[in-house]
Amino acid sequence: MTGGSLPGEAGYVDRSTSYLVGLRPQDALATPLRRMLDILRSRHGGAVDVALSEAAVDLERPLAELPAEVRSPRASEPDPSWVKRSNMVGINVRTVGDYGGVVKYAMTLPAALDSIHLLPIWEPGVVSSLYGMSGFNLNTEFFSDELYEIAPHLDSTERQLRAVSNLVHVMGKTIGLDVIPHTDRYSEPALGNPDLFEWMRVVDRQVVDHSDSLVEEVERVVFAWLSSEGSAVGGLEVPAGPSDLFDLDEATRLRLLFGDKGDLFGRIARRKELLGRLKDLGLEPVPATMGVPFRGVAVDPDPAAVVIDESGLEWPDYVIEKPESFSRVFSPLARYKLYENRDNNANWEIDFSRPRHHTFEYVWRNYGRTRHIGNFDFMRGDMSHVQMRPDGVPNDVDEFYDILGSVKLHIQRTHGAPWFGYFAETFLPARDTFGYGEEMDHLEASWADATLGDLQSNVVGDGEFLRLFRRYLDDLATRRTAPAFTVMTADKDDPRFDEFYRAGNEARMFTALFVTDMPSYIALGFEIRDVHLEPVENERYTKPFVFKESGDSNVYPSKARFGSEFVWGENDELFDTLTGLRQLAEQILPAIATARTRWLIPPDATTLRGTAVWTQEGEPRYVFAVNYDLERASGYFGVPGLESAAELHGEYSTTGDVAQEDRVLRHNGFFHRLENLAPGEARVYRVVG
């Protein structure tokens, strides 16, 4: 779609709409970036050129000195409480191709979807997993040739990221980064800073040693390898001994070991050689774990649970020695060693009273640098549910309680950004499931402003969906961390979740938009996602784009793709309905966006009814009604709690017109009688009188 006006262009330019109404995401991405930027200029004028200017992408310049046009739209906020009402959209840059694609896709998002979360943006490690970062260099696969052609000074991935963030700010939206408490097990940080991680020795598929003192041997092996192979960069001399090597600043040490930043393939080759030397000696970083009891790692005894790579190296899976129901080992990943261990780690016990300040400071420094490059407004904390203290949240909570919360506090304090927020990845399960104790207690103690939750992993209207929704509303009213109404996540869209999105998608989006004091999260592509009655090829799911697994690989065949590009849905019926919802939100949200929700009929935790109705505290303007039951019509029911003089005028239904008998609801002396909601139907009533 390259000729003539784009759908929604006229309304976008004259500011009657906040986005390109009716432009499908795949058509936006097919439009030249230069054309999209011209449309953006027609609306925002010179701010677009300011965003792309050399001054605005000067990475040596303090963010506080950037032009006002590209500063965070939340920069005047005294705290990050705005996150508790934000409607986020998750974007995996691989699905839109590059950073230019982020700009194009953002122009299809209405003002109500006010925050963009970028999935990890660093160089990836094993199977090119975004969450298995190989280091803190930005992923050059996201470099946009179109951006470079438009502005030749945008000649690095870092400057392009800043430019895109600037443009997102010009659009009035916030943008956030992923903060990850782990790396690829053989990442540059792990091999170049062995002391920041735990190590173990594996011999004949047995973990024979996991003592703290192993790190000293690892450092000696790294130095010996460097001495035999020589410096990766000409002119840099190899230090005299291991202590001299690890006393160097990290940037110099990584250049010595692996090479210059621009030599990606050379750095990968050197890293593979070094990890091969370590594996020959049985030395491996301890893999990351999830779910209690966390500690006590062993090689998976299943002979099939092993992969032989192209270099002939054996990569077994790992398991927890004494697992519980949700225990899991992420074999390709390693967590930072944030605390000292007890008794030389003889029994896998952590001494939480002894935080390793230099590890925390390493994580703070690197994520702070990325935050500066990207001019980011918030962070999404990966694996926020990990709480490893058997006694739960302690009586005395300090800044070293949790690595993710400490990153937020560090950025707020040292970057002069009190508005910088933290959106946590958790599932809010029963206590002692993914961590010890109650997850909400942990989130509050770690300064999380909002959290993902798990509504997306349930069929709309079933018992678990209703129970969770009601529980989240109770937590929303009583806790500091706000649970989100999550529609779909950017890294969980795969065949396992197909059954959750075969119906009820309109009700999901309706709720996310119109429960105005609850945050929400939605993944790119939901608005046009096809209904999959049977699993389809991986290119049609966003989850496989977290990886870059080819179809002929035997490492993770279930995640393999045979094509390089994401295949967008063609569900025009859903797209049209959700476009109508977005247009409705454009009309009515400005009047109620800051209002508190008053539930007239809250979601039924007993699951005996599927209906829910809400309005606004104070002076109600609109009433929203949903039948979350996807199989049965509601039949008549009373809507209590409204003034008897008020009439409710039906203005919208996700099924089309409001039924004749329900177009005007009047008080019968006890309540307003609503005759029927169809399965999955959502309606808006305007309060009159």
Task: Explain what the structure shows.
This protein is an alpha/beta fold and 689 residues long. It folds into three domains: 9-180 and 356-588, Alpha-Beta Barrel (TIM Barrel); 188-353, no CATH class; 595-688, Golgi alpha-mannosidase II (Immunoglobulin-like, Sandwich). It is 29% helix and 18% strand. It is built from 19 helices and 32 strands. The strands form ten sheets. A nine-stranded parallel sheet has the order 22-21-20-19-5-2-1-24-23. A six-stranded antiparallel sheet has the order 25-26-27-32-29-30, covered by helices on one side. Strands 8-7-9 form a three-stranded antiparallel sheet. A hairpin with a 2-residue loop joins strand 7 (199-203) and strand 8 (206-209). Helix 14 (357-374) crosses helix 15 and helix 18 (505-514) packs parallel to helix 19 (572-592). The longest helix is centred in the last third of the chain and has 21 residues, at 572-592. The chain is globular. The model has no long low-confidence stretch (mean pLDDT 95).
